[in-house]
Amino acid sequence: RERDLNFEGLTNAKFDKEYVRSCRIRTGRSIRGIGLPTSCTRAERREVETIFRTVVDRFTGDLKGTYRSLKEMDDGEIEKWIEEHLLYDKPVSPLLISSGMARDWPDGRGFFVNEEKTLVIWVNEEDHCRIISMQQGDQGTGGNDMMKVFERFCTAINTVEEEMKKEKVPNFVAARLRLPRHTGDR
């Protein structure tokens, strides 16, 4: 089935703010040919981080922001981003640890956040990247504006794909991923 990332086709996507305080859309992406973070080598994980750092550094307009490598941050700074729900936490459950999620932690892991904190890209958590578009409360046009959240989501995915091609990463794919934390789910 062909995907439709044309946000202009979405209608009736601004919800009643009395009932909807925030909207979020996310997806995982991977690079075919490189092991996922649970099974990749340290060199592969670092390669993925380098690719994404380069790609997001080229973002402009509403997407423009900053890439942060977890290895370059202190624990207090990491906790601040986690509390803001903009960063993933270190895996602590036995399932995630046994799956290899914490191997070489925090080496080769990081995240990108745009200036408005409405777009986040997690690098090397459970997928090579997790792209998240969101709005809360009075951010932008309001936490009830799914149209704006979807527009940013589509723009981010399309921009990442275009930049991947410039980096000669032809195998950046949307994949149906089985996350380690969902192992055993039906």
How would you portray this structure in words?
Mean pLDDT is 85; it is low at 175-186. This protein has helices at residues 42-56, 75-83, 94-98, 146-166; strands spanning 22-31, 65-69, 110-114, 119-123, 129-136, 172-174. Strand 3 and strand 4 (119-123) form a beta hairpin. Strands 2-3-4-5-1-6 form a six-stranded antiparallel sheet, with helices on one face. The chain contains four helices and six strands. The longest helix has 21 residues, at 146-166. The chain has 186 residues and is α+β, with helices and mostly antiparallel strands.
What is the helix/strand order?
Answer: EHEHHEEEHE
Shape: globular
**pLDDT averaged residue by residue:** 85
Give the % helix: 25-40%
Please count the beta strands (DSSP E, at least 2 residues each). 6
> Structural class of the helices, strands and pairings?
alpha+beta
Number of helices: 4
Summarize this entry quickly.
It is built from four helices and six strands. It is of the alpha+beta class.
Reconstruct the topology from this structure.
Elements: E1 22-31, H1 42-56, E2 65-69, H2 75-83, H3 94-98, E3 110-114, E4 119-123, E5 129-136, H4 146-166, E6 172-174
Antiparallel strand pairs: 1-5, 1-6, 2-3, 3-4, 4-5
Features:
27% helix, alpha+beta, 186 residues, globular, disordered C terminus, six-stranded antiparallel sheet, single chain
